[in-house]
Amino acid sequence: MTAPALPCSPASERNQAPILAVLRGLLPDTGAALEIASGTGQHAAFFSAALPGWSWQPTDLKDELFFAIAGWALQAGAANVLPAVRLDVRSSVWPDGGALSAPPFDLIYCANMLHIAPWACCTGLMQGAARHLAPGGRLVTYGPYIEDGVPTSPGNQGFDATLRAQDPGWGIRHRADVEREAAAAGLHLAARHAMPANNLLLVWQRTP
User: What distance in Å separates the CA atoms of residue 45 and residue 29, rounded to the nearest whole number?
Assistant: First the structure.
């Protein structure tokens, strides 16, 4: 009997290789990573298979896709992907009702969450990252942003309108607003990487 197909995010399929290329230049050979809002788990599986010296702790707000996270990891042969746990970034304690695998973390990774979540999730992400990053650790966020002095692409303008029509609390975030939340938590923007499809990969670190 053929196993049912795992849930698949086409966007994750498209962007995982460009993101990995940046991560390879950013990360040492070994470390511990915490992923926020893992979704289907495709990134966890792809990155872990390519970075065997890293342990990867996936998380999500709900557990309905935990089977997919485990399935993609198994399919990729990524034994360094740990069992997923529930985590609400807005909580002052991470994760919900359990313990994280190996805090503090050398990498906290969050892709495509900020624009499809309430603004309080940005605050929570920055505060939680400041609590759980190891010395010298990095928070990496990926997705679309609006930047002062940089024209917003028509595609992102339309995407932003669609998001706000679905939920007034959603929408593509202004990078300057995200930087202010980071600064309030003691983090600063250390690097900006332009990515395909008008996305950015931003690297955050503790402010000295």
Answer: 17
C-alpha angle 203-192-23 in degrees, rounded to nearest 5: 55
- Which candidate, 99, 121, 104, places its Cα nearest to that of 177? 121
- Residue 1: its pLDDT value, please? 41
Q: What is the DSSP secondary-structure string of 123-178? A: HHHHHHHHHHEEEEEEEEEEE-EE-TTSPPPHHHHHHHHHHHHH-TT--PEEHHHH
Structure-block tokens of residue 62:
């709900």
Asked if pLDDT for residue 41 goes beyond 60, the answer is yes
CA dihedral 156, 159, 161, 164 (to 10 degrees): -120
**Ordered structural domains, the chain, with CATH:** 31-206 (3.40.50.150)
- As a whole number of angstroms, the distance between CA 184 and CA 174 comes to 16
| d(C-alpha 110, C-alpha 143), whole Å | 9
Report the pLDDT averaged over residues 48-76: 97
Dist CA 39 CA 159 (whole Å): 20
107 in Cβ contact with 33 (< 8 Å): yes
The band of 208, judged by pLDDT with boundaries at 50, 70 and 90, is confident
